[in-house]
Design goal:
By secondary structure, the protein is α+β, with helices and mostly antiparallel strands. Helix content is 18%, strand content 38%. It has 2 domains: 4-130 and 267-286, Rossmann fold (3-Layer(aba) Sandwich); 132-263, Tumour Suppressor Smad4, CATH 2.60.200.30. It has a 6-stranded parallel beta sheet with strand order 3-2-1-4-5-6, with helices on both faces. 37% of the residues are buried.
Length: 293
């Protein structure tokens, strides 16, 4: 039987990263039928770290092309960057959080062996999650994929930004304020939530537009079908704007740029443990009170 391949990647700059790698290495030293790989970028400047007998170092792309699973070790931001780097290669990702459990991670260092038991026994679920596809209309081949959101804001100008928003060629609104957020259900608990957007259950198939610090009391978030094709352009009063992808990639926009945002034609695949509860995670992270009765 062919071995299943697991690639380890993540935030190697965090102190506990190699402790978790060591724990995974030790676990699989007693389990047959699995091959462990680690991205060479994780080993840069870490030659003094221990060498693992059962882990092979290779380039990220080579690792991914061989893999059945990706283990992303770090925080929620690490999982976002891992999924973005995978692009259209839809390999199931297990998030392993360094520190307290995040929204996206299924395991911490303390619960890791239990999560690995579930992986080996096949007692887990793989859920497909919406990705956003974003590009400038003038350059449709330069595509960015995001798991949480894209943000268009006033950049360094500090001036009010007026965005003209259409969906499927139908005008929605002209938003005046600090900008707008377009997010997936997964991203609804991130920047959008802090800007007054709704919490959207992560299993729903929708997109949300949330204005940031709107100058109009009538401007409200709107939830749209996932087959929406959202186009953002700018008014003649444009001074400056920036586009941010998942809070990690940011670049300036020009007055004539038209930004197109839609659901990608492929999904991110996330591994969920049987003990995971979306509602319980919300309650914990948002400090909701009360107990189930």
């Amino acid at each position: 039987m062919k071995s299943k391949v697991i690639t380890l990647t993540g935030n190697y700059r965090k102190d506990r990263f190699f402790d978790i790698v060591s724990q995974i290495s030790k676990y699989f030293s007693n389990v047959k039928g699995y091959e462990l790989l680690i991205s060479d970028e994780c080993m840069k400047n870490h030659s003094e770290k221990m060498i693992f007998d059962n882990i092979t170092v290779d380039s990220f792309d080579n690792c991914v092309n061989k893999s059945n699973y990706i283990f992303s070790i770090g925080g929620d931001g690490t999982i976002l960057s891992t999924i973005r780097k995978l692009s259209c290669r839809t390999i199931p990702v297990l998030g392993i959080h360094i520190g307290n459990l995040g929204f996206l991670a299924m395991s911490t260092e303390e619960t890791l062996n239990m999560a690995l038991d579930h992986i080996v026994s096949g007692n887990y679920n793989i859920k497909e999650k919406i990705l956003l596809k974003t590009y400038r209309q003038s350059n449709p081949k330069d595509v960015f994929y995001s798991f949480n959101d894209i943000v268009i804001d006033h950049g360094n100008s500090g001036r009010v930004l007026k965005t003209i928003v259409q969906n499927n060629e139908e005008h929605i609104n002209d938003y005046e304020g600090d900008g707008i957020i377009i997010c997936t259900p997964t991203g609804s608990t991130a920047y959008s939530l802090s800007s007054g957007g709704p919490i959207v259950h992560a299993d729903l198939d929708v997109l949300t537009i949330t204005p940031i610090s709107s100058h109009s009391l009538s401007a409200r978030p709107i939830v749209l079908p996932s087959d929406s094709n959202i186009k953002i352009s700018f008014s003649n009063s444009f001074v400056g704007a920036s586009l941010t992808i998942d809070g990690q990639i940011r670049f300036d926009l020009d007055k004539n740029d038209k930004i197109v945002v839609s659901k990608s034609n492929f999904y991110a695949k996330i591994i969920f443990m049987p003990y995971y509860s979306y509602i319980q995670t919300l309650k914990e992270k948002l400090h909701w009170s009360g107990n189930s009765r």
